Task: inverse folding
């Protein structure tokens, strides 16, 4: 396909109208039928409908990203392509924010509309993929599929539960593979940041054989990404310790140990290597807090081998057999700060206690052995076998079965066994003698822990988990009869699907005697049996003001073993007024049952970056906040000691299914007579989710609680404070059925293709305006506004987002300029006047120059974040003083690449 087909990224209807218009004007030399289409008949199955059709505009607001379009932007991962789209918001796992995706370290995900990864359905050729991660996960790993095997990626930004079943409430991402490749192709790409770190290497191999009866395609991708240390981008954690000034605040878990005396005074022990082991002094956050950033990564290293095999063979003239097999091995690593021991009671009689008083060691970081090393090794595979064919009456059918399995081993080094820690403090059990079975430990002062004590208390944790998917599908589609305006088409089918997830943490983690996130085992499964019917009815055609009017509808019944049955439906209208103007709309319902981790996930504990609204509350000027913090017993001079709070997460067996209503209405204008090659689109979307399943982040819960009158919010029951220090010692962030989530907004798009002289110009601009996104945390509760806000573990929901791509091509040389726009947003938890209260508009510019020596060989060189844009400061940051789910941490980076074929 020629470069002037452009980058059709990101507007509702742009794919539905602009893409087919260009296809009609300039069809590709070797079309790639989608999802088993009959190329000879000219009909394809496009994402958003099971009915074979030629009019792609009738399926719903969609974006189509071709393989060529990905190549023009120099991206090698589907996750990056999708996360640049304006329709993406909130948070999703990737190499800079995977820490926030439950059990998904190193897993690439997408979050359409910001409604959550669990509400975006990911498909391969119209069929579901097994979840990826380290056990009991809710989303496939997007990088499971070699990018070179893809013909295109369809992004349906519309609810589609009636078409595809549960989980498609926000939209669908359908990865469509190639069927036309012959020969042997090799490609490679190497990238590096301007600072010389974060190198990434991708090597692809593609091999295809075809004959008159079928063919075979094999794809292999090797990817290796090196780490980028967080301190190289953010030297320390910043906070506004005094009005108008940012300073390093760091973590209150100190390397010497922070303790409290019986009178409530806090002290800190020696923090100098080789210093006086008995030295202690009054605790000072500025002097003693621990800088975690050198012990974290801005980008974590990943090594991955992904393979894919596809085959099809004509058994007879009317029956085709096909098969798919995927296998991915991923090895990902992260470093983490040294572990922390908490609340160790050390009596005055203990020989290591120099105070002469009974003390409680509140937090002591085990810095002597160095950082913890987290690791994940995952194996994921999925196989599909099926038959498809055509009946004598022209109807098409397909029967397929799929089974996928993901398994993983993960864990961490330098984890302390708390039972053994207690043994080393019990003088009746431990001994200072050389070679003692239980050595006595001195935890009061950095460097006082001997190698013998460290060997005794530390271990490497190993967790195991996985996911399984088994499904059988049967589909039938064709034309029932003809009306004056055209044939009435249908699709019908049945589905059986069983999903299973499990996770078995290290036994010491389960027992809660490891100084890491306490976790319970997870195990659960769900089974669904479904049937659906879809109709497309042409009502009018070739009349004044009605070039064509088509109505559509779909209905699906789903029976779940855990929750019973549910009906979902969808209605659509497509009104082509003339060659230049089209109107269309959809209305549908959705349904999603809680997934395995939401429902069966064991409770786990971890220290998450959290903002305490009572920090410096006395100077806030907010009467409600001041009264509430005083009522909670928070000292007047209280300042949050660190940036993290111990938080519990996990499953909730009392969750109920959630349901949704979605409607879209849009228009497309293609003034071919006035401006050939121009398409303008505008689409309004409205999504209403009831009984929404959501885990409210701890920062948001605290902010809502202390903004409520007399601490009346239900969230005020989800945390506790220390009576001694006033700090939050416990937070719960387990998922709940919130009252409601409501979202609406507008997608705008411009696609322009024109040849000026011998230069082919392609311009694609896409903008999303988020008008409203409100979460009602419980029936009758005060609404929480998400639209226009960012941070606090929620990700970013700016009012405006955009993405534009300009490509110019001449005689085999092409230049592509792309720009991502992230609009202004307000921190969820900051107060007006605070530094970081509101972020600016952020633009990331990327440039690529490519040279085609011939139709087989191409070289490219490019730079991302051309102007070295720094991520803005966010007060309630996730990591690196910003929102890592929204902004770019790597700054300017370069890449070179080539491909050739034989």
Result:
């Amino acid at each position: 396909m020629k470069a002037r087909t452009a980058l059709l990224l990101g507007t509702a209807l742009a794919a539905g109208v602009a893409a087919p218009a260009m296809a009609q004007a300039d069809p590709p030399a070797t079309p790639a039928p989608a999802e088993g289409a009959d190329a000879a008949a000219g009909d394809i199955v496009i994402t958003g409908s099971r009915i074979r059709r030629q009019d792609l505009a009738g399926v719903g607001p969609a974006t189509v990203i071709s393989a060529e379009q990905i190549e023009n932007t120099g991206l090698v991962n589907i996750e990056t392509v999708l996360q640049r789209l304006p329709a993406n918001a909130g948070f999703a796992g990737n190499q800079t924010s995977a820490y926030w995706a439950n059990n998904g370290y190193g897993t690439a995900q997408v979050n359409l509309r910001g409604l959550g990864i669990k509400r975006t359905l990911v498909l391969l050729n119209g069929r579901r993929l097994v979840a990826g991660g380290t056990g009991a996960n809710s989303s496939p790993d997007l990088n499971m599929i070699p990018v070179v095997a893809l013909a295109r990626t369809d992004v349906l930004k519309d609810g589609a539960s009636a078409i595809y079943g549960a989980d498609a409430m926000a939209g669908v991402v359908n990865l469509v593979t190639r069927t036309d490749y012959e020969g042997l192709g090799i490609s490679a790409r190497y990238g590096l940041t301007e600072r010389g770190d974060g190198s990434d290497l991708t090597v692809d191999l593609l091999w295809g054989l075809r004959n008159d009866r079928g063919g075979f395609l094999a794809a292999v991708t090797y990817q290796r990404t090196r780490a980028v240390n967080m301190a190289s981008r953010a030297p320390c954690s910043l906070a506004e310790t005094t009005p108008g000034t940012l300073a390093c605040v760091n973590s209150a878990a100190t390397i010497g140990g922070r303790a409290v005396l019986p009178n409530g005074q806090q002290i800190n022990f020696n923090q100098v290597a080789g210093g006086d082991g008995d030295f202690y002094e009054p605790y000072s956050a500025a002097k003693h807090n621990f800088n975690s950033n050198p012990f974290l990564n801005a980008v974590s290293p990943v090594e991955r081998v992904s393979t894919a095999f596809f085959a099809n063979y004509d058994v007879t003239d009317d029956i085709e057999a096909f098969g798919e097999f995927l296998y991915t091995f991923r090895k990902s690593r992260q470093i983490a700060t040294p572990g922390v021991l908490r609340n160790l009671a050390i009596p005055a009689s203990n020989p290591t206690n120099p105070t002469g008083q009974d003390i409680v060691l509140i937090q002591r970081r085990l810095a002597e052995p160095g950082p913890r090393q987290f690791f994940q090794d995952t194996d994921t595979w999925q196989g599909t076998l099926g038959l498809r064919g055509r009946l004598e009456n022209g109807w098409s059918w397909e029967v397929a079965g799929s089974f996928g399995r993901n398994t993983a081993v993960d864990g961490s080094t330098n984890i302390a066994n708390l039972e053994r820690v207690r043994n080393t403090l019990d003088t009746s059990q431990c001994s200072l003698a050389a070679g003692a079975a239980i050595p006595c430990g001195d935890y009061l002062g950095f460097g006082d822990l001997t190698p013998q004590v460290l060997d005794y208390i530390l271990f490497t944790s190993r967790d195991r988990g996985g996911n399984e998917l088994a499904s059988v599908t049967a589909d039938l589609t064709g034309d029932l009869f003809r009306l004056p305006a055209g044939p009435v088409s249908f699709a019908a089918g049945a589905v059986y699907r069983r999903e299973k997830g499990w996770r078995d943490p290290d036994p010491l983690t389960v027992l809660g005697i490891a100084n890491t996130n306490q976790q319970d085992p997870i195990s659960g499964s769900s089974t669904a049996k479904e049937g659906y019917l879809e109709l497309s009815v042409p009502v009018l055609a070739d009349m004044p003001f009605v070039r064509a009017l088509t109505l559509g509808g779909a209905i699906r019944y789903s029976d779940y073993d855990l929750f019973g049955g549910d009906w979902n439906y969808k209605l659509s209208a497509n009104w082509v007024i003339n060659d230049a103007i089209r109107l269309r709309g959809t209305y549908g319902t959705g349904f999603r049952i809680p997934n395995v981790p939401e429902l069966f996930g064991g409770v786990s504990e971890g220290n998450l970056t959290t903002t305490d609204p009572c920090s410096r509350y006395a100077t806030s000027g907010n009467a409600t906040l001041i009264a509430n913090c005083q009522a909670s017993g928070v000292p007047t001079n209280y300042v949050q000691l660190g940036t993290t709070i111990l938080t519990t997460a996990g499953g909730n067996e009392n969750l109920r299914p959630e349901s949704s209503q979605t409607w879209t209405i849009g228009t497309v204008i293609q003034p071919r007579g006035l401006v050939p090659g121009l398409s303008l689109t505008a689409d309004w979307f409205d999504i209403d989710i009831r009984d929404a399943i959501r885990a409210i982040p701890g920062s948001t819960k605290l902010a809502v609680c202390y903004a409520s009158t007399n601490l009346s919010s239900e969230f005020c029951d989800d945390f506790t404070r220390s009576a001694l220090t006033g700090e939050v010692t416990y937070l719960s962030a387990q998922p709940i059925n919130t009252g409601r989530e409501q979202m609406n907004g507008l997608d705008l798009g411009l696609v322009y293709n024109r040849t000026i002289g011998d230069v082919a110009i392609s311009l694609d601009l896409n903008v999303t305006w988020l008008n409203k996104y409100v979460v009602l945390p419980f029936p009758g509760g005060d609404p929480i506004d998400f639209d226009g806000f960012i941070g606090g573990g929620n990700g970013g929901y700016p009012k405006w987002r955009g993405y534009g791509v300009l490509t110019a091509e001449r005689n085999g040389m092409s230049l592509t300029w792309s720009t991502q726009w992230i609009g202004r947003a307000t921190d969820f938890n900051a107060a007006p006047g605070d530094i970081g209260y509101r972020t600016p508009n952020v633009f990331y510019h990327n440039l690529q120059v490519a040279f085609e020596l011939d139709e087989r060989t191409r070289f490219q060189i490019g730079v991302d974040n051309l102007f070295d844009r720094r991520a803005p400061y966010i007060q309630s940051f996730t990591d690196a003083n910003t929102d890592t789910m929204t902004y770019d941490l790597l700054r300017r980076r370069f890449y070179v690449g080539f491909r050739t074929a034989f």
